């Protein structure tokens, strides 16, 4: 069963050693960059995605300073664990975690991805994210999940 654990001094080295496949490196920043970025983001959470005791992925999410809503900035599953349905389960974990910590005025979760990343598009659509037509940020398609 998958679960999330906060990135700490005990597990950060494992987080930065996770890798996507070579053909996916253009789709996501490295986890080391994400952890460095965390120093400049308030209200953000860096978490390892765990299958049992093994970290198999990484995510970074929190309240965006521009729109004051939740954004998923990073989501990745290590290349050795891709194709096992963990991406869908990991996105659900993040949605559930945000539901548990958000305040009532938070209505959405937003993310963006490379338009050529068909797998990410599929996973996010399946989990309830809807592409915002015509909204591209830094060459990435923006999609949004609405809390009901």
From TrEMBL:
Q: Which CDD domains match?
A: NAT_SF
Q: Which UniProt keywords apply?
A: Acyltransferase, Transferase
A Pfam family hit: Acetyltransf_1
The record places domain N-acetyltransferase at 2-148
A single Gene Ontology MF term assigned here is: diamine N-acetyltransferase activity
Q: What is its EC number?
A: 2.3.1.57
Q: Kindly indicate whether the keyword Nuclease belongs to this entry.
A: no
The molecule here is called Spermine/spermidine acetyltransferase
User: Which organism's genome codes for this protein?
Assistant: Pseudoneobacillus rhizosphaerae
């Amino acid at each position: 069963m998958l679960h999330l654990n906060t990135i700490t001094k005990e597990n950060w080295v494992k987080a930065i050693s996770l890798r996507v496949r070579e053909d996916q490196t253009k789709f996501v920043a490295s986890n080391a960059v994400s952890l460095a970025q965390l120093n400049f983001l308030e209200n953000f959470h860096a978490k390892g995605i765990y299958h049992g005791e093994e970290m198999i992925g990484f995510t970074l999410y929190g309240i965006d300073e521009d729109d004051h809503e939740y954004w998923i900035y990073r989501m990745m599953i290590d290349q050795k664990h891709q194709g096992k349905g963990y991406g869908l389960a990991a996105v659900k974990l993040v949605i559930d975690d945000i539901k548990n910590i958000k305040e009532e005025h938070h209505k959405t979760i937003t993310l963006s991805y490379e338009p050529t990343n068909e797998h990410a598009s599929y996973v996010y659509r399946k989990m309830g994210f809807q592409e915002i037509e015509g909204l591209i940020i830094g060459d990435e398609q923006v999609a949004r999940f609405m809390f009901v």
